[in-house]
Amino acid sequence: MRRYLMAALFAAAFPATAADPAWVGEARGVAGSVPPKLLAMLVDEIAKGGPESAIAVCSEKAPQMAKAASEATGWSIRRVSLRNRNPKATPDAWERAALEDFDRRAAAGEAPPTLEKFELVREGDRSVYRYMKALPVQELCVACHGPADRLSPAVTKELKAKYPDDKATGYTPGQIRGAVTIRKPV
After folding, report:
1. Where do the domains of the chain lie?
2. Count of other CB atoms within 10 angstroms of residue 89
3. What is the DSSP string of 5-74?
4. Which H or E run contains 133?
């Protein structure tokens, strides 16, 4: 039920417009397919073993979910952040510019759940569809991504073990944690 609610909220936040290129609706659907599943998995894991056990969901299950969705849709899917926890979540130049723009737009009053960027770009000798959607911090996220001095000792220990160069703490609910980024060659 929660998964469907999240998908419905995502769809409502991004209604199709006549000005959008035809491929953007597909991109929105693909980008919106993984976060609700991940959120449901995190909620379940936190209920079973606390926030420290949810770290494995983000580090292990989320990439598996993105890979499965990539294989099923033909879009390459991943999560990125300006303050990444996982070194594999480092944004490329296009993603960095989009994330910085999301931060500026949020600071100017735009609602983080509505922030997206899409563009047909040239990469070498081919054209590629690129799409990003901001991922705002949810209340449950602060148990692992909140201010470092407020994390439980168990979470701190697990984060130090898995991510010695972690930059992904200090967030509050509603801030932009990162984004789902997808791409597909034309």
Report:
1. 2-185
2. 22
3. HHHHHHHHHS---TTS-HHHHHHHHHHTTHHHHHHHHHHHHHHHH-HHHHHHIIIIIHHHHHHHHHHHHS
4. strand 126-136
Q: Check: CB of residue 184 under 8 Å from CB of residue 128.
A: yes
Residues facing 79 on adjacent strands: 180
Strands 76-80 and 126-136: unpaired
Q: Is 172 helix (H, G, I), strand (E, B) or coil?
A: coil
Indicate the pTM of the whole model: 0.86
**What are the pLDDT digits (tens) for 15-44?**
444 468 899 999 999 999 999 999 999 999
Residues 6+ apart with CB under 8 A from 67: 77
The two structure tokens encoding residue 140: 């449950």
